[in-house]
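Quick one, T. Sequence first:
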Amino acid sequence: MKNSIILLPVIFPFIASILVLYFKFNEKSRNVFTGITTVLNFIFVVTVFNYFEGDRIHLIKFNEFLDIYFKVDKLTMLFALLVSVLWIFTTVYAMEYMKHEGKEDRFFTFFLATLGVTLGIAFAGNLITLYLFYELLTLATFPLVIHSDTKEALKSGRKYLIYSFGGATLVLFGMIILFTQAGDLSFIPKGIITNLNRDNMNLYSISFIAMFIGFGVKAALVPFHSWLPKAMVAPTPVSSLLHAVAVVKSGVFALTRTTYYVYGAEFIRSIESKKYLTIFIVISILMGSFLALHQQNLKKRLAYSTISQLGYILLGIVLLNKNAFVGAMLHLINHAVIKITLFFCVGAIMYTRHKTEISQIKGIGREMPLTLGCFAISSISLIGIPPTNGFVSKWFLALGGLGEGKVLFPVILLVSALLTSMYLLPIITEAFFAKDSINLHVMKEAPKKMLIPIVCITVITIILGLFPNPVLTFIQEIANELM
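C-alpha coordinates:
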Protein backbone atom coordinates (compact mmCIF):
# COMPACT_ATOMS: atom_id res chain seq x y z
CA MET A 1 0.00 0.00 0.00
CA LYS A 2 1.23 3.44 -0.94
CA ASN A 3 -0.01 4.93 2.35
CA SER A 4 2.17 2.53 4.35
CA ILE A 5 5.04 5.00 3.88
CA ILE A 6 3.32 7.07 6.59
CA LEU A 7 4.46 4.39 9.05
CA LEU A 8 8.13 4.75 8.10
CA PRO A 9 9.08 7.68 10.39
CA VAL A 10 7.54 5.82 13.34
CA ILE A 11 8.81 2.29 12.68
CA PHE A 12 12.30 3.02 11.30
CA PRO A 13 13.77 4.33 14.61
CA PHE A 14 12.43 1.24 16.43
CA ILE A 15 14.20 -1.04 13.95
CA ALA A 16 17.39 1.00 14.28
CA SER A 17 17.26 0.82 18.10
CA ILE A 18 17.01 -2.99 17.96
CA LEU A 19 19.99 -3.13 15.60
CA VAL A 20 22.09 -0.99 17.96
CA LEU A 21 21.28 -3.34 20.82
CA TYR A 22 21.80 -6.53 18.81
CA PHE A 23 24.99 -5.82 16.85
CA LYS A 24 26.99 -4.08 19.62
CA PHE A 25 28.75 -1.73 17.20
CA ASN A 26 32.06 -0.16 18.10
CA GLU A 27 31.86 3.52 19.06
CA LYS A 28 32.54 4.98 15.62
CA SER A 29 30.20 2.59 13.78
CA ARG A 30 27.42 3.14 16.32
CA ASN A 31 27.73 6.92 16.07
CA VAL A 32 27.66 6.83 12.26
CA PHE A 33 24.68 4.45 12.29
CA THR A 34 22.74 6.57 14.81
CA GLY A 35 23.50 9.77 12.94
CA ILE A 36 22.40 8.32 9.59
CA THR A 37 19.23 6.97 11.22
CA THR A 38 18.14 10.37 12.54
CA VAL A 39 18.96 12.14 9.26
CA LEU A 40 17.11 9.53 7.20
CA ASN A 41 14.15 9.75 9.54
CA PHE A 42 14.02 13.51 9.01
CA ILE A 43 13.95 12.86 5.25
CA PHE A 44 11.10 10.37 5.75
CA VAL A 45 9.12 12.98 7.72
CA VAL A 46 9.60 15.59 4.98
CA THR A 47 8.62 13.05 2.30
CA VAL A 48 5.43 12.13 4.15
CA PHE A 49 4.60 15.81 4.55
CA ASN A 50 5.11 16.56 0.86
CA TYR A 51 3.24 13.60 -0.59
CA PHE A 52 0.80 12.27 2.00
CA GLU A 53 -0.81 15.26 3.72
CA GLY A 54 -4.43 14.37 4.47
CA ASP A 55 -3.83 10.64 4.12
CA ARG A 56 -4.27 7.98 6.81
CA ILE A 57 -3.47 4.34 7.38
CA HIS A 58 -5.18 1.93 9.76
CA LEU A 59 -2.75 -0.37 11.52
CA ILE A 60 -5.10 -2.46 13.70
CA LYS A 61 -8.85 -2.21 14.20
CA PHE A 62 -10.56 -4.44 16.76
CA ASN A 63 -13.63 -2.25 17.16
CA GLU A 64 -14.60 1.44 17.11
CA PHE A 65 -12.74 2.05 20.39
CA LEU A 66 -9.56 0.09 19.68
CA ASP A 67 -8.79 1.52 16.25
CA ILE A 68 -5.07 2.20 15.85
CA TYR A 69 -4.36 4.44 12.90
CA PHE A 70 -2.10 7.24 11.74
CA LYS A 71 -2.90 10.37 9.78
CA VAL A 72 -1.04 13.34 8.37
CA ASP A 73 -2.27 16.89 8.92
CA LYS A 74 -0.61 20.26 9.46
CA LEU A 75 -0.38 19.91 13.24
CA THR A 76 1.23 16.50 12.77
CA MET A 77 3.88 18.00 10.56
CA LEU A 78 4.54 20.97 12.82
CA PHE A 79 5.38 18.68 15.72
CA ALA A 80 7.06 15.93 13.67
CA LEU A 81 9.42 18.36 11.93
CA LEU A 82 10.34 19.99 15.24
CA VAL A 83 11.09 16.59 16.80
CA SER A 84 13.04 15.17 13.88
CA VAL A 85 15.20 18.29 13.40
CA LEU A 86 16.16 18.68 17.06
CA TRP A 87 16.81 14.95 17.37
CA ILE A 88 19.57 15.22 14.77
CA PHE A 89 21.38 17.91 16.77
CA THR A 90 20.89 16.00 20.02
CA THR A 91 22.36 12.88 18.41
CA VAL A 92 25.55 14.69 17.42
CA TYR A 93 25.80 16.29 20.87
CA ALA A 94 25.23 12.97 22.65
CA MET A 95 27.98 11.22 20.67
CA GLU A 96 30.54 13.25 22.60
CA TYR A 97 28.73 13.87 25.88
CA MET A 98 27.86 10.23 26.58
CA LYS A 99 31.53 9.22 26.53
CA HIS A 100 31.86 10.12 30.19
CA GLU A 101 28.43 8.74 31.16
CA GLY A 102 29.07 5.18 29.97
CA LYS A 103 26.54 2.50 28.93
CA GLU A 104 26.31 4.14 25.51
CA ASP A 105 24.73 1.17 23.72
CA ARG A 106 21.86 1.17 26.20
CA PHE A 107 21.51 4.92 25.90
CA PHE A 108 21.32 5.02 22.09
CA THR A 109 18.96 2.04 22.01
CA PHE A 110 16.34 3.85 24.07
CA PHE A 111 17.27 7.19 22.52
CA LEU A 112 16.25 5.95 19.07
CA ALA A 113 13.20 4.11 20.41
CA THR A 114 12.03 7.36 22.03
CA LEU A 115 12.28 9.10 18.66
CA GLY A 116 9.93 6.51 17.15
CA VAL A 117 7.50 6.78 20.06
CA THR A 118 7.43 10.59 19.94
CA LEU A 119 6.72 10.54 16.21
CA GLY A 120 4.01 7.96 16.91
CA ILE A 121 2.35 10.59 19.10
CA ALA A 122 2.74 13.15 16.31
CA PHE A 123 1.17 10.90 13.66
CA ALA A 124 -1.61 9.46 15.85
CA GLY A 125 -4.94 9.68 14.06
CA ASN A 126 -7.17 9.37 17.10
CA LEU A 127 -7.10 9.54 20.87
CA ILE A 128 -6.57 5.84 21.54
CA THR A 129 -3.53 5.73 19.24
CA LEU A 130 -2.08 8.81 20.90
CA TYR A 131 -2.74 7.30 24.33
CA LEU A 132 -0.91 4.05 23.53
CA PHE A 133 2.18 5.88 22.30
CA TYR A 134 1.90 8.27 25.23
CA GLU A 135 2.22 5.29 27.56
CA LEU A 136 5.09 3.88 25.50
CA LEU A 137 6.87 7.23 25.86
CA THR A 138 7.03 6.75 29.62
CA LEU A 139 8.49 3.26 29.21
CA ALA A 140 11.01 4.36 26.55
CA THR A 141 12.28 7.37 28.50
CA PHE A 142 12.43 5.68 31.93
CA PRO A 143 15.78 3.92 31.21
CA LEU A 144 17.16 7.26 30.01
CA VAL A 145 16.10 9.02 33.22
CA ILE A 146 17.75 6.35 35.43
CA HIS A 147 20.78 6.00 33.14
CA SER A 148 23.35 6.50 35.91
CA ASP A 149 21.68 3.79 38.05
CA THR A 150 22.48 5.73 41.22
CA LYS A 151 20.16 5.70 44.22
CA GLU A 152 19.04 9.24 43.41
CA ALA A 153 18.41 8.35 39.76
CA LEU A 154 16.32 5.31 40.67
CA LYS A 155 14.29 7.36 43.16
CA SER A 156 13.68 10.05 40.53
CA GLY A 157 12.77 7.36 38.00
CA ARG A 158 10.16 5.90 40.34
CA LYS A 159 8.64 9.34 40.82
CA TYR A 160 8.59 9.84 37.05
CA LEU A 161 6.75 6.53 36.59
CA ILE A 162 4.22 7.23 39.34
CA TYR A 163 3.36 10.68 37.99
CA SER A 164 3.30 9.58 34.36
CA PHE A 165 1.15 6.50 34.88
CA GLY A 166 -1.09 8.40 37.28
CA GLY A 167 -1.70 11.04 34.61
CA ALA A 168 -2.25 8.35 31.97
CA THR A 169 -4.87 6.70 34.19
CA LEU A 170 -6.81 9.96 34.30
CA VAL A 171 -6.55 10.19 30.51
CA LEU A 172 -7.94 6.66 30.13
CA PHE A 173 -10.78 7.48 32.52
CA GLY A 174 -11.67 10.57 30.49
CA MET A 175 -11.45 8.66 27.20
CA ILE A 176 -13.85 5.95 28.37
CA ILE A 177 -16.42 8.54 29.50
CA LEU A 178 -16.06 10.43 26.23
CA PHE A 179 -16.46 7.30 24.10
CA THR A 180 -19.61 6.23 25.95
CA GLN A 181 -21.14 9.61 25.10
CA ALA A 182 -19.77 10.43 21.66
CA GLY A 183 -18.91 6.97 20.28
CA ASP A 184 -15.84 8.39 18.58
CA LEU A 185 -12.25 9.29 19.47
CA SER A 186 -11.10 10.67 16.12
CA PHE A 187 -9.11 13.86 15.64
CA ILE A 188 -11.27 16.22 13.59
CA PRO A 189 -10.75 20.00 13.30
CA LYS A 190 -13.29 21.79 15.56
CA GLY A 191 -13.92 18.54 17.45
CA ILE A 192 -16.22 15.54 17.34
CA ILE A 193 -18.89 17.02 19.64
CA THR A 194 -21.18 18.70 17.15
CA ASN A 195 -24.55 18.66 18.87
CA LEU A 196 -24.28 19.73 22.48
CA ASN A 197 -26.79 17.86 24.60
CA ARG A 198 -27.15 19.71 27.90
CA ASP A 199 -28.07 16.44 29.62
CA ASN A 200 -24.58 15.12 28.85
CA MET A 201 -22.70 18.34 29.54
CA ASN A 202 -21.46 17.28 32.97
CA LEU A 203 -20.07 14.00 31.67
CA TYR A 204 -18.31 15.75 28.80
CA SER A 205 -16.89 18.27 31.26
CA ILE A 206 -15.62 15.56 33.60
CA SER A 207 -13.96 13.70 30.73
CA PHE A 208 -12.28 16.89 29.46
CA ILE A 209 -10.98 17.88 32.91
CA ALA A 210 -9.67 14.35 33.54
CA MET A 211 -7.79 14.35 30.23
CA PHE A 212 -6.52 17.90 30.64
CA ILE A 213 -5.05 17.09 34.05
CA GLY A 214 -3.80 13.70 32.85
CA PHE A 215 -1.94 15.11 29.86
CA GLY A 216 -1.01 18.12 31.99
CA VAL A 217 1.20 15.90 34.17
CA LYS A 218 3.74 15.50 31.36
CA ALA A 219 3.27 19.19 30.51
CA ALA A 220 4.41 19.94 34.11
CA LEU A 221 1.15 21.64 35.10
CA VAL A 222 1.33 22.75 38.75
CA PRO A 223 0.80 20.93 41.14
CA PHE A 224 1.83 17.88 39.07
CA HIS A 225 5.24 19.28 38.16
CA SER A 226 7.67 17.95 40.77
CA TRP A 227 8.78 14.95 38.68
CA LEU A 228 10.43 17.29 36.17
CA PRO A 229 13.17 18.86 38.34
CA LYS A 230 13.87 15.44 39.87
CA ALA A 231 14.48 14.04 36.38
CA MET A 232 17.53 16.33 36.09
CA VAL A 233 19.66 13.44 37.38
CA ALA A 234 19.54 12.15 33.80
CA PRO A 235 22.41 12.92 31.38
CA THR A 236 22.19 16.36 29.74
CA PRO A 237 21.09 15.05 26.31
CA VAL A 238 18.16 13.36 28.08
CA SER A 239 17.37 16.52 30.05
CA SER A 240 17.37 18.44 26.78
CA LEU A 241 14.89 16.03 25.22
CA LEU A 242 12.69 15.93 28.32
CA HIS A 243 12.42 19.71 28.48
CA ALA A 244 12.56 20.73 24.85
CA VAL A 245 10.97 18.07 22.69
CA ALA A 246 10.00 14.57 23.71
CA VAL A 247 8.14 14.44 27.00
CA VAL A 248 6.83 17.86 27.98
CA LYS A 249 6.05 18.86 24.40
CA SER A 250 4.23 15.57 23.87
CA GLY A 251 2.04 16.54 26.81
CA VAL A 252 1.38 19.96 25.25
CA PHE A 253 0.73 18.38 21.85
CA ALA A 254 -1.74 15.92 23.38
CA LEU A 255 -3.57 18.79 25.11
CA THR A 256 -3.77 20.66 21.81
CA ARG A 257 -5.23 17.60 20.09
CA THR A 258 -7.71 17.03 22.92
CA THR A 259 -8.83 20.65 23.13
CA TYR A 260 -9.20 21.50 19.44
CA TYR A 261 -9.54 18.17 17.63
CA VAL A 262 -11.68 16.18 20.10
CA TYR A 263 -13.82 18.62 22.07
CA GLY A 264 -13.49 21.75 19.97
CA ALA A 265 -13.25 25.40 21.00
CA GLU A 266 -17.03 25.85 20.93
CA PHE A 267 -17.56 23.17 23.57
CA ILE A 268 -14.68 24.31 25.82
CA ARG A 269 -16.11 27.84 25.87
CA SER A 270 -19.40 26.47 27.18
CA ILE A 271 -18.03 24.78 30.30
CA GLU A 272 -17.43 26.58 33.59
CA SER A 273 -14.39 24.52 34.56
CA LYS A 274 -12.21 26.32 32.00
CA LYS A 275 -11.67 29.23 34.38
CA TYR A 276 -10.36 26.87 37.09
CA LEU A 277 -7.88 25.31 34.67
CA THR A 278 -6.75 28.82 33.77
CA ILE A 279 -5.99 29.51 37.43
CA PHE A 280 -3.70 26.45 37.61
CA ILE A 281 -1.96 27.56 34.42
CA VAL A 282 -1.34 31.08 35.75
CA ILE A 283 0.06 29.57 38.96
CA SER A 284 2.37 27.40 36.81
CA ILE A 285 3.68 30.46 34.97
CA LEU A 286 4.45 32.45 38.11
CA MET A 287 5.40 29.62 40.46
CA GLY A 288 7.86 28.12 37.97
CA SER A 289 9.62 31.47 37.66
CA PHE A 290 9.74 32.08 41.42
CA LEU A 291 11.12 28.59 42.07
CA ALA A 292 13.75 29.03 39.34
CA LEU A 293 14.99 32.16 41.12
CA HIS A 294 15.93 30.12 44.19
CA GLN A 295 17.91 27.41 42.38
CA GLN A 296 21.70 27.59 42.39
CA ASN A 297 22.15 24.43 40.34
CA LEU A 298 22.22 25.34 36.64
CA LYS A 299 20.14 22.41 35.40
CA LYS A 300 17.54 22.79 38.14
CA ARG A 301 17.16 26.49 37.39
CA LEU A 302 16.44 25.62 33.76
CA ALA A 303 14.07 22.85 34.89
CA TYR A 304 11.86 25.20 36.88
CA SER A 305 12.05 27.68 34.02
CA THR A 306 10.50 25.00 31.81
CA ILE A 307 7.48 24.74 34.13
CA SER A 308 6.87 28.47 33.72
CA GLN A 309 7.38 28.52 29.95
CA LEU A 310 5.08 25.55 29.41
CA GLY A 311 2.43 27.56 31.26
CA TYR A 312 2.64 30.13 28.46
CA ILE A 313 1.75 27.47 25.91
CA LEU A 314 -1.08 26.05 28.01
CA LEU A 315 -2.48 29.55 28.50
CA GLY A 316 -2.52 30.08 24.74
CA ILE A 317 -4.36 26.77 24.29
CA VAL A 318 -7.17 27.50 26.77
CA LEU A 319 -7.76 31.13 25.69
CA LEU A 320 -9.47 29.68 22.59
CA ASN A 321 -8.84 32.42 20.05
CA LYS A 322 -6.64 32.53 16.96
CA ASN A 323 -3.96 34.88 18.26
CA ALA A 324 -3.58 32.90 21.47
CA PHE A 325 -3.39 29.60 19.55
CA VAL A 326 -0.78 31.03 17.17
CA GLY A 327 1.22 32.30 20.15
CA ALA A 328 1.00 28.91 21.86
CA MET A 329 2.21 26.95 18.82
CA LEU A 330 4.95 29.50 18.11
CA HIS A 331 6.12 29.21 21.70
CA LEU A 332 6.04 25.42 21.45
CA ILE A 333 8.65 25.75 18.70
CA ASN A 334 10.56 28.71 20.10
CA HIS A 335 10.84 27.32 23.61
CA ALA A 336 12.05 24.01 22.19
CA VAL A 337 14.97 25.52 20.26
CA ILE A 338 15.85 27.96 23.06
CA LYS A 339 15.69 25.50 25.93
CA ILE A 340 17.60 22.75 24.14
CA THR A 341 20.39 25.27 23.48
CA LEU A 342 20.46 26.36 27.13
CA PHE A 343 20.73 22.76 28.30
CA PHE A 344 23.42 22.00 25.72
CA CYS A 345 25.43 24.98 26.98
CA VAL A 346 25.09 23.90 30.62
CA GLY A 347 26.06 20.37 29.60
CA ALA A 348 29.15 21.76 27.86
CA ILE A 349 30.15 23.56 31.07
CA MET A 350 29.66 20.37 33.06
CA TYR A 351 31.60 18.30 30.52
CA THR A 352 34.62 20.60 30.11
CA ARG A 353 34.80 22.33 33.50
CA HIS A 354 32.85 19.99 35.79
CA LYS A 355 30.90 22.98 37.14
CA THR A 356 27.24 22.58 38.11
CA GLU A 357 26.49 25.61 40.33
CA ILE A 358 26.05 29.25 39.37
CA SER A 359 28.61 30.28 42.01
CA GLN A 360 31.23 28.15 40.23
CA ILE A 361 31.06 29.78 36.77
CA LYS A 362 32.64 33.18 37.52
CA GLY A 363 34.56 34.30 34.45
CA ILE A 364 33.83 31.15 32.48
CA GLY A 365 32.35 33.23 29.66
CA ARG A 366 35.85 34.45 28.82
CA GLU A 367 37.16 30.91 28.86
CA MET A 368 34.26 29.57 26.74
CA PRO A 369 33.04 32.67 24.81
CA LEU A 370 31.24 30.82 22.04
CA THR A 371 29.33 28.49 24.35
CA LEU A 372 28.34 31.22 26.79
CA GLY A 373 27.62 33.62 23.92
CA CYS A 374 25.05 31.16 22.61
CA PHE A 375 23.69 30.83 26.15
CA ALA A 376 23.33 34.63 26.33
CA ILE A 377 21.49 34.84 22.99
CA SER A 378 19.13 32.02 24.00
CA SER A 379 18.51 33.63 27.40
CA ILE A 380 17.60 36.95 25.81
CA SER A 381 15.27 35.09 23.46
CA LEU A 382 13.56 33.28 26.33
CA ILE A 383 13.03 36.58 28.15
CA GLY A 384 11.31 37.85 25.00
CA ILE A 385 13.35 40.95 24.17
CA PRO A 386 12.63 42.21 20.60
CA PRO A 387 13.42 41.09 17.92
CA THR A 388 13.93 37.57 19.25
CA ASN A 389 11.67 34.61 18.55
CA GLY A 390 10.53 34.59 22.18
CA PHE A 391 9.17 38.09 21.71
CA VAL A 392 7.14 37.03 18.65
CA SER A 393 5.34 34.18 20.42
CA LYS A 394 4.72 36.21 23.59
CA TRP A 395 3.36 39.08 21.49
CA PHE A 396 0.68 36.83 20.03
CA LEU A 397 -0.08 35.37 23.45
CA ALA A 398 -0.60 38.90 24.78
CA LEU A 399 -2.87 39.72 21.84
CA GLY A 400 -4.81 36.55 22.60
CA GLY A 401 -5.29 37.62 26.20
CA LEU A 402 -6.47 41.09 25.16
CA GLY A 403 -8.77 39.46 22.60
CA GLU A 404 -10.59 37.79 25.49
CA GLY A 405 -10.88 41.14 27.26
CA LYS A 406 -8.39 40.02 29.92
CA VAL A 407 -5.74 42.68 30.56
CA LEU A 408 -4.49 40.52 33.44
CA PHE A 409 -2.98 37.91 31.10
CA PRO A 410 -0.56 40.29 29.30
CA VAL A 411 0.39 41.67 32.73
CA ILE A 412 1.17 38.13 33.94
CA LEU A 413 3.31 37.55 30.84
CA LEU A 414 5.24 40.77 31.55
CA VAL A 415 5.77 39.83 35.20
CA SER A 416 6.97 36.38 34.17
CA ALA A 417 9.33 37.92 31.58
CA LEU A 418 10.78 40.11 34.34
CA LEU A 419 11.27 37.06 36.55
CA THR A 420 12.85 35.19 33.61
CA SER A 421 15.39 37.99 33.26
CA MET A 422 16.07 37.83 37.01
CA TYR A 423 17.01 34.14 36.92
CA LEU A 424 18.86 34.07 33.58
CA LEU A 425 20.76 37.37 33.37
CA PRO A 426 22.72 36.75 36.61
CA ILE A 427 24.16 33.62 34.99
CA ILE A 428 25.39 35.71 32.05
CA THR A 429 26.83 38.48 34.22
CA GLU A 430 28.52 35.92 36.46
CA ALA A 431 30.02 34.16 33.44
CA PHE A 432 31.28 37.25 31.59
CA PHE A 433 31.83 40.03 34.11
CA ALA A 434 32.81 38.43 37.43
CA LYS A 435 36.52 38.94 38.11
CA ASP A 436 37.19 35.79 40.09
CA SER A 437 38.55 32.57 38.61
CA ILE A 438 39.31 34.04 35.18
CA ASN A 439 42.17 32.24 33.54
CA LEU A 440 42.62 33.30 29.96
CA HIS A 441 45.41 30.76 29.54
CA VAL A 442 42.99 27.83 29.76
CA MET A 443 40.51 28.98 27.12
CA LYS A 444 38.81 25.80 26.07
CA GLU A 445 35.51 25.51 24.27
CA ALA A 446 33.40 22.39 24.27
CA PRO A 447 34.39 19.63 21.80
CA LYS A 448 33.21 20.20 18.23
CA LYS A 449 30.49 17.55 18.36
CA MET A 450 28.91 19.50 21.22
CA LEU A 451 29.72 23.00 20.00
CA ILE A 452 28.37 22.61 16.45
CA PRO A 453 24.81 21.71 17.60
CA ILE A 454 24.88 24.61 20.09
CA VAL A 455 25.87 27.13 17.40
CA CYS A 456 23.51 25.71 14.76
CA ILE A 457 20.42 25.80 17.00
CA THR A 458 21.35 29.31 18.17
CA VAL A 459 21.39 30.38 14.51
CA ILE A 460 17.94 28.79 14.09
CA THR A 461 16.75 30.74 17.14
CA ILE A 462 17.97 34.01 15.59
CA ILE A 463 16.38 33.20 12.22
CA LEU A 464 13.02 32.39 13.84
CA GLY A 465 13.10 35.81 15.49
CA LEU A 466 14.13 37.83 12.44
CA PHE A 467 12.10 35.89 9.86
CA PRO A 468 9.09 34.38 11.64
CA ASN A 469 6.63 34.67 8.73
CA PRO A 470 7.02 31.19 7.12
CA VAL A 471 6.32 29.41 10.42
CA LEU A 472 3.76 32.02 11.44
CA THR A 473 1.80 31.61 8.20
CA PHE A 474 1.79 27.83 8.57
CA ILE A 475 0.45 28.03 12.13
CA GLN A 476 -2.19 30.58 11.11
CA GLU A 477 -3.42 28.08 8.51
CA ILE A 478 -3.87 25.54 11.32
CA ALA A 479 -5.70 28.13 13.44
CA ASN A 480 -8.07 28.92 10.57
CA GLU A 481 -9.06 25.23 10.40
CA LEU A 482 -9.85 25.12 14.10
CA MET A 483 -11.67 28.40 14.79
